[in-house]
């Protein structure tokens, strides 16, 4: 094991930060998210040998939500190459909300600013290989299975609720369609996008995903190369610049770890292996999964963000 | 010397990228910038012992322009602490242009998105310690002198031109004033901001600045600590997320080095020391100064950006 | 007959303005509109006795398109009262395009600015009385039948094309739905809206509609009161302030007649009876229908607008 | 006398509407406006023979503020012709606030939407004939003297306060300058604009101005023609479409009289002579001045607006 901390130390941080859950609340737009226990906070950290430190409410499963955006981006880039994907979506951060049409209309007929805002994510999801929605979704599950070692499943209740309340996403998608940025039919593009958001994961699975991104696409436990280094790098750039909704800049400043959050309260984070110039390596790279369903107005787990900030400062995880 | 390349190799890259100068043109809004030789391209790379590799049109001096924004931010944070500065300016990237009033008006009375857009930079400059413009500017020169080892001077012609054409900046500054975000008088805030933009530097000086940022505020040649590690980190975050105007995301994806550009065609870049997990260190940290006055529509040196991209790829300089 | 001009004089104006058709082109987004003969220009003017002056390409039929917006507004206001309608839609002009989401998102969760931009028109159409789309559409046809004396029909080809290309309108409607401004299901609201846009009319029918609006809701030929004076007045206000898309202000300044245009090239205009203070009445009120399918970038008939401008100046039709 | 009402009747309306003053408050941005007595409400109506009905707090003087915008527009159009003025400013309403930069930046480098938003008004003021500020201001006073029969004076205290707090207007003016829409120096353009806003008037003078606009530029009392009919018409169009800030549409719908308000609480309104088709003339045209310094969030007198609405409905003053 190569952890810089003991399970007890992590549990201490969990306890200290659990109080921050009262600063947020669960996402209210669909019942399945709203009824999550907002007092929960859990973490799994995985090292390059697959060992884990688990603490707090780690034995939970929840839906990927926006975390899926970075995964479909990686998947599509792996399949088609980065160049092809960047023809349809840019990689620039935007100060507007993740579901805003303003920047899009002002700069039209420009492509979406980046793959982590909804407009960009819908565009990317619609590029998933496959003729039908089922094909595309199967391929995305195949990719996730390669990442986490087991086939995740769709939370049908969440998907159905998402589908029925996706008015703003439909607005965005029809806007994209009108601008000739969406090759798929709008309802099909939404179906695949909302399905990917409704996939259930566990914290150890998130941690493994974070680990593989930290190791530039290679699973360090098995040595298997799952996606190219170039794709991993651009994924980390996006996680740093746009991964935490409209507080990505503050998260980069305070935490400094590539990460992507979702409104279910999950966060995947990638601590790349870093060594000092005296050749000692304070860490050899970790993947982190965090769950804290009380989210702030930006959509990020309140307690989860604070927990990551403290861990990063205490154990020097920042890439900056 | 610890360079991964020879001067000849760098000269080769200069030659290869000089053709990209024709894709841009010199900034046209003031004569002193417009009349720069748009075919120029030069670079100085400095290592942690103060050794340099100089190539192309490296023996030049030019004005800092927007590069000064990151320096005044570091200076003010060093003096007052990061917290005080972040009360007046946020650290979030924005997809709008560096001189846009749109995001500002939509989200008003919010503080400026970050210190590297003009609204944020004017706010930060106005915070420079000192009672008078002269005091504030002297203190900024003091700070630069500590960084580069000699006192830089103001290009009076550039300053006068900037002052006379600063209509958009005046609009921004009066907007800030109206929103109670500017404590100084507008004309005073503009004076100090435009003066800092009009300071002349040389490429080796830019490289040294980049080196000190890469070494988290310590001059590795002398061992002198010039600003706190925390300030250096947030500076690097801002350089990555917002340093290259509206192509910061693409620059992070393609180059991956914290950098800040100016419309004079200068770029300062900081390559932090990075080591692999086998304890070999491909680089021990560099500061880079680039000059290529032909800029693109975003305001970045066309050839300079390409040159940095090739060097980063060839010698693995990306932090991602 | 009470016309201030002879048919020959009107024909002279038609000839003079036909050349302006080359300054525009037919709407290109659906085949049925695109293939209209862009060189056409026709007019019918109807007086309070039902007499008409017809000139140019007057013997045509075409779809109402945006002209229907003012008619569904009148219909819904007549049924529910103005107050109820103004709870859901404002009556303020906007400088943004008729299909823009920008003002809407900036000022959210505000209601649509007015019933003549698409967002407002969709909101109003969805209020048409009736349980089903069929009921609502039947009621709208009933209302038109009362206005023009015969039951108009739906152009099925146009409706189908509109339905299949209505991406931007779907975006708007889903945006409305998400803001709780649309009680109907989005697809139902769009169906009724697009059906009303696809109703076929002739120029004499448009002229009669204009006449009834000019006479404040009373058909002066029969004396029948079809809608309240208050509704007619607010309709004329909307026609003046927002009736001609983003050149409504210029049209009011140059022509000064309440009017509403559509992208099919039709314009309905209402010349209210006006008398001078010496008690002579230069006109006793007219309804005007114009058809000129070559439209400008704002969506208004190029030649039709010029024709109305000349007639208004020559015969003092302006209400200002 | 040709009034449709007695002084007693008008006094009744004043009493009834005075309670609406508590729905607003005086403009707070400068002391001279803030300290006005917010409970005041007064009116002067003038007929074509110069007779007046005065009621409530009519014996007051106050500064023109935005009312001056329509007067400088009329003055400049009279001097240079409408065409020349419309090259620099459009006549389209905008849904954004009177001091917004948003529409301007989105549509840049477009000219200001209309002469009644601040950007347009500053542009128009800067066109006033004359070499110096003094010349321009003198010429504007000359024009006002022709309208009201005596030379009005500048309220120096108001002007000084306006000058010192005009941050937003300076922002707008520098924005205009940067877009090459302002020929004058910014500070000079602001001086003339703010001076015209700071001119003191009385209600009978406002009423006379309204009367002359209603009579298309002719003073009906003396028969003197002061400005062309075409200018009067476009002024009335602007008053209807943009005269009452962001509730111009609602004012047109509820009141239907061309009017212009200012944040001092003044409103000038023009009731054109209108006759019915039975040749009876319910009114022969009036000018109205209203004062009620308690303004709403849009900038319009709360009680003054209600008073005009009731009078318009009771005596059929609407042009629609």
TrEMBL record, chains A, B, C, D:
Signal peptide: none annotated. It catalyses: L-glutamine + H2O = L-glutamate + NH4(+). The keyword Cytoplasm does not apply. GO terms for biological process: glutamate biosynthetic process; L-glutamine catabolic process. Substrate binds at residues 66, 118, 162, 169, 193, 245, 263. Its EC number is 3.5.1.2. One of its GO terms (molecular function) is glutaminase activity. Keywords: Acetylation, Hydrolase. InterPro entries: Beta-lactam/transpept-like (IPR012338), Glutaminase (IPR015868). Homotetramer. HAMAP family: Glutaminase (MF_00313). This is Glutaminase. It comes from Bacillus coahuilensis p1.1.43.
């Amino acid at each position: 094991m190569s952890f810089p901390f003991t399970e007890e130390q992590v549990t201490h941080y969990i306890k200290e930060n659990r109080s921050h859950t009262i600063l947020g609340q669960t996402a209210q737009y669909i019942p399945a998210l709203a009824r999550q226990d907002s007092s929960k906070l859990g973490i799994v950290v995985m090292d390059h040998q697959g060992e884990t430190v688990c603490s707090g409410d780690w034995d939970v499963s929840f839906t990927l939500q926006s975390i899926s955006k970075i995964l479909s981006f990686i998947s599509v880039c792996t399949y088609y190459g980065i160049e092809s994907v960047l023809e349809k979506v840019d990689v620039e951060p935007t100060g507007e909300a993740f579901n805003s049409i303003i920047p899009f209309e002002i700069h039209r007929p420009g492509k979406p600013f980046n793959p982590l805002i909804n407009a960009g994510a819908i565009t990317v999801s619609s590029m998933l290989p496959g003729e039908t929605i089922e094909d595309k979704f199967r391929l995305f599950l195949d990719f996730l299975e390669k990442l986490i070692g087991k086939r995740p499943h769709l939370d049908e209740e969440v998907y159905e609720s998402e589908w029925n309340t996706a008015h703003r996403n439909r607005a965005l998608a029809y806007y994209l369609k009108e601008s000739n940025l969406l090759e798929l039919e709008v309802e099909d593009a939404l179906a695949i996008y909302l399905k990917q958001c409704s996939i259930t994961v566990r914290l150890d699975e998130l941690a493994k995903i974070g680990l593989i991104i930290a190791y530039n696409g290679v699973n360090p436990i098995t040595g298997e190369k799952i996606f190219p280094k170039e794709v991993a790098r651009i994924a980390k750039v996006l996680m740093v610049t746009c991964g935490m909704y409209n507080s990505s800049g503050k998260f980069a400043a305070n935490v400094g770890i590539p990460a992507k959050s979702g409104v279910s309260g999950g966060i995947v984070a990638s601590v790349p292996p870093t060594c000092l110039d005296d050749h000692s390596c304070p860490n050899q790279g970790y993947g982190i999964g965090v769950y804290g369903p009380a989210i702030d107005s930006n959509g990020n787990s309140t307690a989860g963000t604070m927990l990551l900030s403290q861990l990063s400062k205490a154990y020097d995880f920042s890439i900056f």
